[in-house]
Amino acid sequence: MWTFGVAAALLLAAAALAFVALRQNANLFYTPETLAENGVPAAGKEVKVGGWVEPGSLTYPGDGSEMVFSIIDNSPASITVSFTGIAPDLFREGQGVVAIGTFDADGRFTARQVLAKHDENYQPRELRPLGAGPDQNAS
Amino acid sequence: MIELGHLAAFLALAASLAQGVLGLTGARALAGRAALVAFAVMVLSFLTLVVAFARSDFSVALVANNSHTLKPMLYKIAGAWGNHEGSMALWCLVTMGFGAAGALWMRTGRETFEARALGVQGWLATGALGYLLFASSPYLRLDPAPLQGAGLNPILQDPALAFHPPMLYLGYVGYSFVFALAAAGLMEARIDRVWAKEARRWSLAAFIPLTLGIALGSYWAYYELGWGGWWFWDPVENASLMPWLLGAALLHSVAVTEKRGSFAAWTALLAVLAFLFSIMGAFLVRSGVLTSVHAFAVDPRRGLLLLGGLIAYGGFALGLFALRAPKLEGGKPWTILSREGALVVNNVVLVVAALTVLLGTLFPLIAEAAGRTISVGEPYFRLTFVPMLAALLAILPVVQAWSWGKADLSTLWKWAAGGVGLVVIFLLLGVGLWDIPLGAAFGLALAFWLIFGALWELRRRAVTLARVFRLPLRVWGMTLAHIGLGVFILGAVVETTQRYEATLALPAGGSGTVAGWHVTLHDVRAIEGPNWYADKADLTARKGSARAEMAPTKRYYPAARMPTTETAIHKTGTGDLYVALGDRRDVDGETRWVFRVYFNPLIDLVYLGVLLMGLGALFSVLPRRRKP
């Protein structure tokens, strides 16, 4: 009896904890199109955004450690992403990327991490519905 | 050559089938012989595969798709299991290896029971081998043979990763034999102390390589991915953590069954679940339902077959459990405030922690089915998994001194005072003096609490200090494992909360300062390796009188058309200075190279702690010392 009581109490506590943690910490994924539809999420909440790096949009505004680029999809919308760090190995303009980070109040996205295609066969899961990107014929 | 291997695999299939049938009919000696034959021919079969890789025989499709003549020999050989088909062949080999080991080294004196365990193991081997031969055969030829292979996924060309899969599989598949023992014990409704003594040895035999395999994978991710961290809560990492947590719960539960005869049904259930979670790990990783670097064979049909196997094994074992668990005998009586009660808490928390990880890992899939794309990252695990385990570990030093049946609580107030005192000291030091987060201060207190508690328990058991070295090896094993936990937490807390990271964009001759280290870039040169070419940066890092030459490199593998990051790590006494070379950027007409520089304090303690846990498990499985 004791065993079941202890187990049930712990299980209940864990379930509550997991529920709260999931509600607060599951990262929603946005493409430029869904972002335009749903509006920018609360500033400071961690989310994922994904799409293709817009050709010609990549700039280095500072000493070169920060990169700023736009991501686009099949809609007219775009998201401006700022990232300080090493670009993923296969990061190129026109290539599909997923960025994890937060929006600020102005709708600008600061990425904590940027993921690109890992090799020739691997595409980030979130980008599969987007289909081939603009550079697929170029390279 | 490879046809010989193919034929041998069919012979192994026949032998495993014979082992399965003979074992379940109770023929211990014959089933044992079949297990040895199956293992021997499977070794032969696997060797032909390894030889095909070593000789770069591109007429074998698997070699052509996954190897290259210019690869160093170690990676040619490791390439044999660095792909889906080869890794499944390894899985089969290890399954039969455990069958053969069981045939040789089971010592229960119960002939029918041992025969049945071998029988179940035979069926597990048959299933795995059937999957290998009919759904993912590594033995297929390619005609015409290409002149050159496509190369191994270059991020796998690494010493830690050459040995990571075999270690991990020894662990995963090791639980297949624990599963077989549980099934055989349930068949005769006898999960008692003799059973537990046998099952405990095999649980340890699986736990040790699983622990080391996870550590190797984590160490690889640390220095190869260039992200500075050692655990990313990636689905693939979680897939190995879940069986580990269940395996840890099993070790504690089976010890109770061995000593007291209690927890019989629960121990059998855990033994079954540990293996089911191992297969589930393989399913999650291999089926491509979760993307990761490991999903090298994204084939829904294979995923379905693995899922089918999981359901078949799970249905069989859990059905057997439901039928027989009510008939199992209970052990000696106990109350909640006893060693047994404490171990119930241990088991419930470890299992719930594993379920929490499972939920976090599968939740994105569930949400996707509901039409939403989300991901679950580190914050979720930090809020659920971490406090659960912290609470469990906080009571560990107190309750491990409790006796079986009913604990003596007269010293409880001393423990409580000691624990509260330690927390207060670390809160004052941490928040007041070191300026670290509150959680980190608690974490440090917990780490020292565990290390101190383990040593105290050792001394308590020895009564006098002089007799410490005459304690049984398994007491030493427990002590080492618990000290290892403390050391691990110390490293993990300090590394996670005090890690320092910065990005530098340097031209040749430029410099920057990170965590007190003054980093100067001399130049970046192009170099060539056997099957790659690379950009290699020459850096000097200085801090006071300390000085380190560092050469972070970015390799490019033309065969796979893929770059990799080779980080430079300088070990100081207090942590790793860690530099990864990034991309080349043209800023205002000047060429700059981007570097990610980290200082990872006490990171070695993370791995030392895990190694101590593995070593502790090793001490626990070693035979008893002879009395002098």
From TrEMBL, chain A:
GO terms for cellular component: plasma membrane. Keywords: Cell membrane, Cytochrome c-type biogenesis, Heme, Iron, Membrane, Metal-binding, Signal, Signal-anchor, Transmembrane, Transmembrane helix. Residues 120-139 are annotated as: Disordered. Its main location: membrane. Gene3D superfamilies: Nucleic acid-binding proteins (2.40.50.140). GO terms for biological process: cytochrome complex assembly; protein-heme linkage. Residues 1 are cytoplasmic. GO terms for molecular function: heme binding; metal ion binding. Heme chaperone required for the biogenesis of c-type cytochromes. Transiently binds heme delivered by CcmC and transfers the heme to apo-cytochromes in a process facilitated by CcmF and CcmH. This is Cytochrome c-type biogenesis protein CcmE. It comes from Hyphomonas johnsonii MHS-2.
UniProtKB/TrEMBL annotation, chain B:
Residues 81-287 form the Cytochrome c assembly protein domain. It holds the Pfam family CcmF_C. The chain crosses the membrane at residues 6-27, 34-54, 88-106, 118-140, 169-189, 201-221, 241-257, 264-284, 304-323, 344-367, 379-399, 411-434, 440-459, 471-494, 605-622. GO terms for molecular function: heme binding; heme transmembrane transporter activity. The keyword Heme does not apply. It is a multi-pass membrane protein. GO terms for biological process: cytochrome complex assembly. Its main location: membrane. Residues 310-622 form the Cytochrome c-type biogenesis protein CcmF C-terminal domain. The keyword Cell inner membrane applies. GO terms for cellular component: plasma membrane. Keywords: Cell inner membrane, Cell membrane, Cytochrome c-type biogenesis, Membrane, Transmembrane, Transmembrane helix. It is found in: Cell inner membrane. It comes from the Bacteria. InterPro entries: CcmF_C, Cyt_c_assembly, Cyt_c_biogenesis, Cyt_c_biogenesis_CcmF. Belongs to the CcmF/CycK/Ccl1/NrfE/CcsA family. Required for the biogenesis of c-type cytochromes. Possible subunit of a heme lyase. PANTHER family: CYTOCHROME C ASSEMBLY PROTEIN-RELATED, CYTOCHROME C-TYPE BIOGENESIS PROTEIN CCMF. This is Cytochrome c-type biogenesis protein CcmF.
